[in-house]
């Protein structure tokens, strides 16, 4: 019975809401918003939120869904190169700037102590590591959500969208690498060692083999649906197991497994389909449960205000980075602005990153709530802001032609 209630509240309700608003609010936002609303209501009205969930089976399904979502994000990094601009020094520099400037702004905001009322670090955690965790979340550009946005763009805007995807793919890879480094440093800070025995060596050997075979075995893979699915599950399981055996997070391995999959396998797995199944059918339970896990008491006016301030400075720094280091020479200012508006989208990747960091103890529940709120607002505003900037650009073009 608990599983049925879980499904009704945290899978069917977000889906119905998404249909009612006709997709105006991204599906990425609605599940965690549902869970957060229940958590706040439970605090304000004094009822037991555990009566609604999570159920053990619902937790398992949601966890499998978010693993599949991270895997599909990795697969997308293999696919975007087909339509995206050529990777050169200027594009890499733009991607690094779009990541580094928001990271530095978030790091300074956290380490300076000016927002300690809501951004205070957990007890026993280095202020530098905690500040780096917040900066990393502020620097995210959400590749899976951007893929969906770009697919819906008019043909005239597709080249700009593909440029955004190329930059987001690079930033996503750096994000997950940064998460792995933070978790590794945090383990060292706590004087924890790697798991004993041969498991770490086996995990490293398996990851190394996946990297080495990435571009060599594609032509030998049979093109059969059942074999393709089996290989996809094997890659996902191998990546998740490897990072878990190294004392890191399974989601890191799921993402890297997708990014290291042979190109033919990535194409046959159809990342768009994997992502949609995970986003609409499985992962809503995970994200709703993350929202439900937030203590409604920490969602205060101060926390919401802090999330809006961080949203402004993160978005402004992302726009500034694109203007200061454009990925193409001679890119007009209006196009840089529209590109920056796409890249400021945080999507589910920030929520996933914040979840990993919260579970590791690098950020407090209050900071987690702030970052989740920031991600929700950022994702919701991306398409309206992009359309507004596009309408302004079109109006300027018409005026100039008169």
From TrEMBL:
<feature type="transmembrane region" description="Helical">
    <location>
        <begin position="191"/>
        <end position="213"/>
    </location>
</feature>
<feature type="transmembrane region" description="Helical">
    <location>
        <begin position="366"/>
        <end position="386"/>
    </location>
</feature>
<keyword id="KW-0472">Membrane</keyword>
<keyword id="KW-1133">Transmembrane helix</keyword>
<feature type="transmembrane region" description="Helical">
    <location>
        <begin position="163"/>
        <end position="185"/>
    </location>
</feature>
<dbReference type="InterPro" id="IPR006153">
    <property type="entry name" value="Cation/H_exchanger_TM"/>
</dbReference>
<dbReference type="InterPro" id="IPR050794">
    <property type="entry name" value="CPA2_transporter"/>
</dbReference>
<feature type="transmembrane region" description="Helical">
    <location>
        <begin position="220"/>
        <end position="238"/>
    </location>
</feature>
<keyword id="KW-0406">Ion transport</keyword>
<feature type="transmembrane region" description="Helical">
    <location>
        <begin position="60"/>
        <end position="79"/>
    </location>
</feature>
<feature type="transmembrane region" description="Helical">
    <location>
        <begin position="91"/>
        <end position="111"/>
    </location>
</feature>
<feature type="transmembrane region" description="Helical">
    <location>
        <begin position="298"/>
        <end position="320"/>
    </location>
</feature>
<keyword id="KW-0812">Transmembrane</keyword>
<keyword id="KW-0813">Transport</keyword>
<feature type="transmembrane region" description="Helical">
    <location>
        <begin position="131"/>
        <end position="151"/>
    </location>
</feature>
<dbReference type="Pfam" id="PF00999">
    <property type="entry name" value="Na_H_Exchanger"/>
</dbReference>
<feature type="transmembrane region" description="Helical">
    <location>
        <begin position="341"/>
        <end position="360"/>
    </location>
</feature>
<dbReference type="InterPro" id="IPR038770">
    <property type="entry name" value="Na+/solute_symporter_sf"/>
</dbReference>
<feature type="domain" description="Cation/H+ exchanger transmembrane">
    <location>
        <begin position="10"/>
        <end position="384"/>
    </location>
</feature>
<protein>
    <submittedName>
        <fullName>Cation:proton antiporter</fullName>
    </submittedName>
</protein>
């Amino acid at each position: 019975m608990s599983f049925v209630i879980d499904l009704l509240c945290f899978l069917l309700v977000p889906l119905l809401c998404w249909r009612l608003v006709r997709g105006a609010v991204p599906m990425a936002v609605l599940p965690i918003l549902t869970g957060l609303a229940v958590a706040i209501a439970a605090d304000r009205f004094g009822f037991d939120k555990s009566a609604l969930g999570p159920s053990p089976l619902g937790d398992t399904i949601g966890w499998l869904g978010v693993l599949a979502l991270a895997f599909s994000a990795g697969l997308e990094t293999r696919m975007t190169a087909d339509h995206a601009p050529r990777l050169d020094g200027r594009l890499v520099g733009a991607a690094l700037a779009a990541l580094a400037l928001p990271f530095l702004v978030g790091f300074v905001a956290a380490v300076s102590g000016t927002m300690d009322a809501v951004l205070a670090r957990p007890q026993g955690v280095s202020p530098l590591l905690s500040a780096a965790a917040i900066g990393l979340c502020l620097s995210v550009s959400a590749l899976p959500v951007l893929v969906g946005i770009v697919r819906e763009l008019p043909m005239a805007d597709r080249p700009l969208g593909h440029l955004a995807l190329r930059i987001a793919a690079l930033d996503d890879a750096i994000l997950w690498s940064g998460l792995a480094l933070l978790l590794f440093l945090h383990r060292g800070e706590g004087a924890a060692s790697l798991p004993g025995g041969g498991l770490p060596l086996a995990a490293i050997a398996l990851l190394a083999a996946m990297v080495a075979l990435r571009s060599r075995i594609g032509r030998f893979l049979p093109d059969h649906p059942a074999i393709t699915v089996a290989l996809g599950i094997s890659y996902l399981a191998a990546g998740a197991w490897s990072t878990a055996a190294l004392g890191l997070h399974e989601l890191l391995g799921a993402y890297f497994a997708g990014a290291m999959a042979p190109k033919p396998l990535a194409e046959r797995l159809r990342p768009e389909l994997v992502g949609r199944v995970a986003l609409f059918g499985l992962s809503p339970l995970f994200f709703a449960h993350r929202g439900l896990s937030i203590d409604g008491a920490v969602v205060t006016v101060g926390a919401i205000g802090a999330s809006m301030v961080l949203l402004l400075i993160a978005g402004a720094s992302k726009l500034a980075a694109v203007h200061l280091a454009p990925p193409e020479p001679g890119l007009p200012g209006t196009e840089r602005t529209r590109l920056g508006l796409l890249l400021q989208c945080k999507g589910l990747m920030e929520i996933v990153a914040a979840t990993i960091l919260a579970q590791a103890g690098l950020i407090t529940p209050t900071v987690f709530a702030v970052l989740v709120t920031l991600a929700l607002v950022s994702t919701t505003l991306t398409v309206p802001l992009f359309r507004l900037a596009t309408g302004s650009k079109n109006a300027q073009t018409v005026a100039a032609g008169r």
